[in-house]
Amino acid sequence: MRIGICSDHTGVEYKSRLISYLLGKGYEVVNFGTDSTDSCDYPDYAHPMAAAIEAGEVDAGIALCGTGNGMALALNHHKGIRAGLAWNQEIARLVKEHNNANVLVMPARFISRRMAVMMVRAWLLADFAGGRHQRRIDKIVQP
Questions:
Q1: 34 cis-preceded (ω within 30 degrees of 0)
Q2: Is 29 left (phi over 0), alpha (psi -120 to 50) or beta?
Q3: What are the residue numbers of the active site?
Q4: Are 124 and 32 within 8 A, CB to CB?
Q5: 132: DSSP letter
Q6: How does pLDDT run across 53-110, given as a tens digit for each residue?
Q7: 86: which DSSP letter?
Q8: pTM score, whole prediction
Q9: DSSP helix/strand/coil, 128
Q10: 25 with 125: CB under 8 angstroms?
Q11: Which of 26, 84, 126, 138 is the most buried (most CB within 10 A)?
């Protein structure tokens, strides 16, 4: 599985830890930036990763910014993206099981690095439940 990952300046240290974790688990990782703690704009990294997911260049994505909201808003502007914001393991699992999120978004200012790894693990191991959840996703795509 090929996973894209991006962050703004607040998520850089988390992103580095997550890249190491993912590589250690055998995932291929594509880093969409940033790699600096200098202030930057999250859409500059969210949009290229979303486009890569839509094009099939990566299978899924992980995004981090201060609250997670900015990344989620930018990512969800893309038709093929379902970016789910999570702040603990259970929510990370449920954004995959119930919403079939192809991007996990995390709030770097509000979680620990250890929690970020646990959330990514939970999200990756979860499976979409389908059923009534598919009906709801269909209504998101076709209002």
A1: yes
A2: beta
A3: 65, 98
A4: no
A5: H
A6: 999 999 999 999 999 999 999 999 999 999 999 999 999 999 999 999 999 999 999 9
A7: -
A8: 0.96
A9: coil
A10: no
A11: 84
